[in-house]
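Researcher: Go.
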Amino acid sequence: MSFKKKSIQKINPGKNRLKFRSLEKWLKWQESLHFTAVELGLERCRRVANNMGLLNPPYDVISVAGTNGKGSSITLLDSILRNSGYKIGRYTSPHLLRYNERICVNGKEVEDAELCESFDRIDRARGDISLTYFEFGTLAALDLFRQHEVQLAILEVGLGGRLDAVNILDADISLITSIDIDHQEWLGNDRDSIGREKAGIFRNLAPAICSEPSPPQSILDCSEALGTPLYLLGRDYKYNLEKGDWTWETKDTCLDGLPRPMKFCDFQIQNASGVLMVLNKIKDEYPVKKKDIQKGLSSFRLKGRFQMILGEIPKILDVAHNRESIKVLVENLKIIPCHGKTHIILGMLKDKDYQQVIKELMSIADVWHFVSISQERGVKAEILTFELKMFSNQENVFEYDDMKSALDSVHKYAKPNDRVIITGSFHTVGAAIRCLN
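Model: Structure:
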């Protein structure tokens, strides 16, 4: 493949008086600007991007869609490419602790002042066009990547693909991670429908990688209809687990002696395998050395993804929030011996399948601690208790209004050899990290 050679034009931010001078005020204003938190569609966002000159960026684009594994794949790509000396922009969502986490340049979060200036440019360019909170963030990422003159932008698709704001840009190469049932209200009730929405990021002749081992037929159909070269795990590339490391190969390439990206998390090798295929397809324009790949894999850490906090009573934090990701979490936990009780701290959002999540966690849970998420999309703790009681007579169930109360209770009653699992949502894990810090 051959990337376009693009000239970089840095835009003068201007000296207009900003609507708001604090990031907090900008974000609060954005939350109430649009009549609904989510509105899929590209027209409004594309018009504003066109007004700002963002639709033909001077950098190359990797778009990443999927149900689970997007954040891990993007973090690995970013790390390996930066190890190789490239200037990389990374856009992900949602954030755990700070909004700035969503937009990073060369591994560093952008500053509040930069975001405020970018939001102001977007506000001036939009005129009377209404934008969602997510659309503002997406446009800010594209704007700031141009400002920082990145060579390559790695963009996480927020919801679906076809109608997600990220899709206003044509990806030079795309990656689809694992597919599961999630966001049914917008994407459909089966994997085939969801796969079709994810494949909306495909472009004619631009290669696409899929790291889902059993992709829905709709993904293959979309690639054929669009003329998108599609590379599938198990068909065009594969990996093999060895005793302490792993091997990745295609019909003409083999990388052996690769370190596992996270202890107790072999599922990350599936994500890493897709990442290596992306790197393989862009190697003419962005060559990387094996040592840079090994360094990226061995140093891989992602806050809130099977994050272990050791101590007398160890804690594991994981943002898993749907059936597939919770199932993987449970499988990993079963590998780690626990000689005491397993305490589950769970908080979830209304649009998630919390019934299935609770069912998956029942095989390891001894004590349940349900936490209410206070925002509008959050589920009250008593609803989670009700769902548990529908198919279990378990008595060790507690409810809390906030994370601090839950952690205080667990610290009081948990004993040595017990463990605490905190999961269900970015909001839940983010609140726990703030309390534990």
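Model: Residues 2 and 124 are 36 Å apart (CA to CA).
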